[in-house]
Amino acid sequence: EERDENGEEITIYRTVWTERNNDCMRYCKVLSRSEQLKRPYYNVELIYQEKNLHEDCLHPPHERVYVDMIPQHAVTLTDRIFTGDIHLINAFRHFIGLPSHLL
């Protein structure tokens, strides 16, 4: 039995990825990466979302959902917010002018 920071009981679900479902694409936390037959796979924890999901994709906030063996082609990796190179102080931010006949 697991409990959250408020002492509420948390239900844990663990499943293995079976097929891509574009209706249920969601943010997740990558827990681990492994390789089988030289192909990478990810194990993730889904991040709770209240909005922008189909009804059948929602899970209550007291549930933790883990998905294992997601193939790399089904994962889109992104930088954490404001951690990409574009946010560096010395990032390239110069005006690029176009000749007026191209506008």
Explained architecture:
The chain is mainly β and 103 residues long. It has no helices and five strands. Strand 1 and strand 2 (9-16) form a beta hairpin. The protein is elongated.
Sequence of secondary-structure elements: EEEEE
Helix-and-strand structural type = mainly beta
What's the number of extended β-strand segments?
A: 5
Helical run tally: 0
Helix proportion range: under 10%
What is the 3D shape?
A: elongated
Termini Cα gap: 64 Å
Mean pLDDT: 82
Which keywords apply here?
single chain; mainly beta
Short description:
The protein starts with a strand and ends in a 32-residue tail after the last strand.
Describe the SSE topology.
Elements: E1 2-3, E2 9-16, E3 28-36, E4 39-46, E5 63-71
Parallel strand pairs: 2-5
Antiparallel strand pairs: 1-2, 3-4, 4-5
